[in-house]
Amino acid sequence: MNKAAVVIGGSGAIGSEICKRLASENYNTYFTYLRNQVSASEMEQAFPGYLHGVFCDVRNPEEVEAFIDRVKKECGRVDVLINCAGISGESLFVNKSVDEWKQVLETNLFSVFYSCKSVVPIMLEQYSGVIINVSSILGTFGIPGMEDYCASKSAIIGFTQSLASEVARFGIRVNCISPGMIDTQMSVGAQKQIGKSVKKLIPCREFGTAENVADLMEFMISDKASYINGENILVGGGLGRTLPVS
């Protein structure tokens, strides 16, 4: 039986690359999308029979539960859960609305709780499973105008560590991947505004790619990472962790 994987937020740059890696490893992969239906269809066509896009508003717990129930019904199991749904808020705190705050927290953080709430019982029955939550380097330090985003990503790290300590004895590993400045559509605005300044702070002197994140994910779900649990691993080229020098 092929292993089954679930990707929450699978139609974006990082999510789609992760989905493709899973499909190439013969995982029967189900992923959610909200607005990128064209991207979802193209992904399905590229890996027929292995990639299955499902429209789902991950801010809605009932929709997430129904999505996971479908995977369980069709596959009988869930071996891997990847949480990488995310949006960013980029207004100064004094201008930030309650609705904007809620939308970012519900998309980035609440969706992680909803998916884990539905998947963990399945993994407990199997006595096996791997969960990877995608946080951000901005979960480890702040930046003006992104209080909601930083708060959500920081909370994901704490959630990951707590859940890992609770379910490890049942054969379930839970880890976190925190990308730095990755060259995606989401980061285009930030690159235009502060890209040159940020690049000078990255010891590797370049932005990362979705492939860099997927490379780590591919390792983290493998048996080679069987003793790695409750960790937050950064993919940021050294940003925020070293003192760059020229």
From TrEMBL:
UniProt KW Transport keyword: no
Domain Ketoreductase intervals: 3-180
Domain of life, per lineage: Bacteria
Matches recorded under InterPro entries: KR_dom (IPR057326), NAD(P)-bd_dom_sf (IPR036291), Sc_DH/Rdtase_CS (IPR020904), SDR_fam (IPR002347)
Keywords: Oxidoreductase
GO biological process, one term: fatty acid biosynthetic process
Keyword Oxidoreductase part of the UniProt annotation: yes
Gene Ontology molecular functions: oxidoreductase activity, acting on the CH-OH group of donors, NAD or NADP as acceptor; quinone binding
Pfam families in alphabetical order: adh_short_C2 (PF13561)
Family: Belongs to the short-chain dehydrogenases/reductases (SDR) family.
Name of this chain's protein: Ketoreductase domain-containing protein
Species name: Lacrimispora algidixylanolytica
